[in-house]
Amino acid sequence: MVILKNLSTEELYAPGHRLCAGCGPSISIRMALKAARGPIAVVNATGCVEVSTTIFPYTAWRIPWVHALFENQAAVASGLEAAYQSLEEQGKRKGKVDVIAVGGDGGTFDIGIQAISGMLERGHDIVYLCYDNEAYMNTGIQRSGATPRGAATTTSPAGKVIPGKRGMKKDFIGICAAHGISYAATASIGFFSDYIDKMKKAIEVDGPAVVHVIAPCPLGWRSNPTETVKLAKMAVQTGMFPIYEVKDGIYKMSLKPGKLLPIEKYFELQRRFRHLLKPENKNELEEIKREIENNYRRILKLAGEQAA
Q1: How many angstroms from the chain centroid is the CA of residue 126?
Q2: Over the stretch 141-191, which tens digit does the pLDDT of each residue have?
Q3: Does some domain include residue 307?
Q4: How many domains does the chain have?
């Protein structure tokens, strides 16, 4: 288990970038790089983190960093990993370089999922990190495949026609685990020790590994920037975002909250969900609560556990 005082004081992700106050994805990147075991290179898809950390001529990255498109970060990372391997085989460099491909939920769940699937199927020794703020925040807060049911976005506005986004969040880790990879996990920036520990495990895997971390966006979630970490914890404690790992196909819960917190407590802190607390949306809220509980029980069952 990672202990705060034992973490490296070296900052591979520098301050002074242009990301928002309280930005969950920014926190997720800083934490992830604390798991570095040696030389590391990042391939970063277009998104909030990419555009706000590399405004020419400045950069927040103190490591080798490559910008890729929404759809091909996993393919670019695959080429980089193969290049490092070739250089080592030719005796032109010594030592392992850990490659991390980074994408937001839009570039992961939707636009980039084909290249990610190919990377996993080919068995590249890469860690894929998805920072999930549950919408396309960089381009205007449009709904993505990671947006929860009921959330109001600019392309799924809550009104008389629909009460927010239709359909459930994709099971991205389930999709990745189905490729037969050795390690896949969900995490939360609200539980930093568990998150960094999972990044360390993913880096140490000989082959592809995936970490999916919930990282609230104050702008898109319409929440208080001071409550980002609180919301990241509540997402887990309400069952909205269970955290677990899948090792060689075996599921294991990382945190079992016991009795789940009422989802209303989580929703009332975010204006994207507040319409669900109105009397006219009572039936929709109850259906969402059932879906959350059913999914939480499904993960527990896969992990061989029972709900409290």
Answers
A1: 16
A2: 999 999 999 999 999 999 999 999 999 999 999 999 999 999 999 999 999
A3: no
A4: 1
